[in-house]
Amino acid sequence: MSAALSVLSSAAVVLDGLPVRIDPDEVLRFQGYKKGIDVPTADVLALFGEALALGERLMAPRVVYRAAPVSGQAPELIEAGGERLSIPEIGRLWGRLGHVGAGICTVGRPIEDRVRRLFDARELPLAVMLDSVGSAAAESLAEHINDLLCQAALADGLRVTNRISPGYAGWDTAEQRALFRLCPGGPIGVTLNEACFMTPIKTITFLVGIGPEARVDHYFTQCRRCWMPDCAYRRAPIAVAPR
Ligand code: SF4
After folding, report:
1. What's the whole-number mean pLDDT along residues 113-140?
2. Residues with CB under 6 A from ligand 1
3. Parallel, antiparallel, or unpaired for β 62-74 and 99-106?
4. Percent of the chain with pLDDT over 90
């Protein structure tokens, strides 16, 4: 890892070399499979294995993170770092905050470049599966950084909420611009265009709330899928075994 993670850092922190755990169920979900209902065939599982091996060779996970003190809060508003973030029900969900943390996670361009070449070569099943592997890898990276932030904050008596992203749960995608102003993507080579599309594509932005009274587990119990071993503050047993 290139830098230590300071939860309240007002300077951008770049992390690389983070482990990425790709959940087969997550990949298949991106392929339209419903867990416990749709059973993948042996051919599909073999294709997944091929795409996973390729994806693991190609991915270059990087994260940039920066925190900003919260200057104002309302039921659907957070003011921080000179930005006004309009997020449905955020006051009820996160409670009183001291800071927000904004971050950008990417698995880099090589996966999407290979997906494009596979499509050009009409190797469609592998192209689609590798694309799903890339999406699952970006999700995994975002979950892992959420865990790292949680653990780093606990040592200082702070709590970190589950992450949220513009474009989900009613938070306007256009606020991606505000998130990029809070935490620019330049240090890890991520850009945002006028239509709020990010490059590389396999990139996820996130916002977390931070503070001693921040409400955690607002939409699922974070500890159930957290990788952190021997966490003294664990609130629930792990539900997904680490790879
Ligand atoms: S086990 Fe729970 S409390 Fe501990 S770092 Fe993970 S999410 Fe945070």
Report:
1. 96
2. 147, 150-151, 222-223, 226, 228, 231, 233-235
3. antiparallel
4. 73
pTM: 0.91
Q: With left for phi above 0 and alpha for psi between -120 and 50, is residue 158 left, alpha or beta?
A: beta
- Residue from 145, 148, 156, 222 whose mutation best tests the ligand 1 pocket (most atoms within 8 A of CB): 222
pLDDT of residue 40: 84
- Identity of the amino acid at 185: G
Q: Which ligand 1 atom is nearest residue 146's CA?
A: 7
Per-residue pLDDT at 243:
47
Please state the atom number of ligand 1 nearest to the C-alpha of residue 226. 6
User: Are 129 and 26 spatial neighbours (Cβ–Cβ below 8 Å)?
Assistant: no
Nearest CA owner, ligand 1 atom 7? 223
What are the pLDDT digits (tens) for 197-239?
A: 999 999 999 999 999 999 998 777 888 888 787 888 888 888 7
Helix, strand, coil abundance in the chain, percent, nearest 5: 35, 20, 45
CB-based burial label for 194 (10 Å; 0-12, 13-18, 19+): exposed
Q: How many CB atoms lie within 10 A of CB 132?
A: 23
User: What separation in Å is there between the alpha carbon of 155 and the centre of ligand 1?
Assistant: 11
Average pLDDT over residues 68-90: 97
Partners of residue 204 on adjacent β-strands: 105
